[in-house]
Amino acid sequence: MPSLKDIKKRIGSVKNTQQITKAMKMVAAAKLRRAQEAAVAARPYAQKLHKVVSHLAQREEADGHPFLSPRGKDRALVLLLTADRGLCGGFNANPSKEAERFIRNNSEGYAHIDLMIIGRKGRDFLRNRVGDKITKVYEDITGNVTFKTAQLIGEDIVLKYEDETYDAVYLIYNAFQSAVVQNVTVEQLLPIQAQEEEKHEADSVDYLYEPSRGEVLADILPKMVEVQLFRALLESNASEQGARMSAMDSASRNASEMIGKLTLQYNRARQAAITKELMEIISGAESIK
């Protein structure tokens, strides 16, 4: 049985840990509000742009632009969005497991699948699971998401697709729903495909191209990739803060329960020690008589 000193020391250690988890929860809550506002604000433009491009993908010929043309099943690129830090529940593990599952399930469909990761936690999780499939890792960008960052990564992806390094590009990330709910999402970035619910609308929509169809497609299709990536980064950032706030709240409650159990154990041990001392005193007094 641990001594009173050991129990008291452990109670102090748990209290110190609880102070840290409470502070981290408050920081995550403050960041969550800003991140959620940014993610929600980006959705209307990204969704409308995706709808327009989906209609174009239905109306245009397959050879109208490389981004609209389905290719073979040779090489695919999976872009995984995680965080650089942990202590956020299953935020990093869930999309990483989905990426591993995607590679395993599509290994027969594609001759080769490469993995590009944003966030060092995704790299740490998959480094020993997928081996040399990890081609590039971006670090230290999830804490401050800007469109310029999404643009640079998007340009890299677009360049690799245009020179036919890859035949398809997929995006895996946590979509923000609430502070306690994040949905792992798998999207196909390239080639661009119309959503099932939008296919029936394509025939009823017509577009006038100015200055020309080729120039409009050459400008809007790469931009769509950058915008969708930027939206996913914002969604992932909001999801990270929500997951961290929820995880730290749970950790603080667990610490409170542990402190209560340790305090009860301390009081019982202290009572047992006092009782033992009283019995020794009484026994000594009785032996003197």
UniProtKB/TrEMBL annotation:
PROSITE patterns linked to this entry: ATPASE_GAMMA
Keyword Cytoplasm found: no
The organism's place on the tree of life at top rank: Bacteria
GO biological process, one term: proton motive force-driven plasma membrane ATP synthesis
GO cellular component, one term: thylakoid
Predominant cellular place of this UniProt entry's protein: membrane
Database matches in Pfam families: ATP-synt (PF00231)
Cell membrane is among the record's keywords: yes
Single GO MF descriptor: proton-transporting ATP synthase activity, rotational mechanism
Keyword annotations: ATP synthesis, Cell inner membrane, Cell membrane, CF(1), Hydrogen ion transport, Ion transport, Membrane, Transport
Localisation per UniProt entry: Cell membrane; Membrane; Thylakoid
Lipid bilayer topology: Peripheral membrane protein
InterPro entries: ATP_synth_F1_ATPase_gsu (IPR035968), ATP_synth_F1_gsu (IPR000131), ATP_synth_F1_gsu_CS (IPR023632)
Quaternary structure, from the entry: F-type ATPases have 2 components, CF(1) - the catalytic core - and CF(0) - the membrane proton channel. CF(1) has five subunits: alpha(3), beta(3), gamma(1), delta(1), epsilon(1). CF(0) has three main subunits: a, b and c.
Known role: Produces ATP from ADP in the presence of a proton gradient across the membrane. The gamma chain is believed to be important in regulating ATPase activity and the flow of protons through the CF(0) complex.
Similarity annotation: Belongs to the ATPase gamma chain family.
Entry-linked HAMAP family: ATP_synth_gamma_bact (MF_00815)
Protein name: ATP synthase gamma chain
Protein's organism: Pelovirga terrestris
Gene (UniProt): atpG
